[in-house]
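Problem 12. The chain below contains 115 residues. Write out its predicted structure in token notation.
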Amino acid sequence: MVRSSRKGPYVDPKLMKKVEGQKPASGVIKTWSRDSQIAPEMVGYTFGVYNGKEHLPVAVTEEMVGHRLGEFSPTKKFLRHGGKMQKEMEQKKREAEIAAAAAAKVEKAPAEKKK
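Solution.
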């Protein structure tokens, strides 16, 4: 959503007050204001942005200026796609990894005995 240019960017006043009162390396600044835009004064700070469950740390860089804090703190956790077929494929992959690790262990053991 675009904000009117005459209004200017929205930055929560309480959040700016917290930024002005701290140094960049002083720790995480907790905030619930996901809709605040990142201002140039915020570069170098680390914010704990609330995602509905916990505060996720967001280290602000110059490329983030103009974006919203909520863009860097996802609210939904991706689990995976697929159902029964996906589970079967993952099980075969795990079995192959275990077999490869066992084969590597067997090859390594005779090489140690020769020394």
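Discussion. Residues 79-115 form one domain. Students who got a different answer should revisit the alignment rule from Section 12.3.
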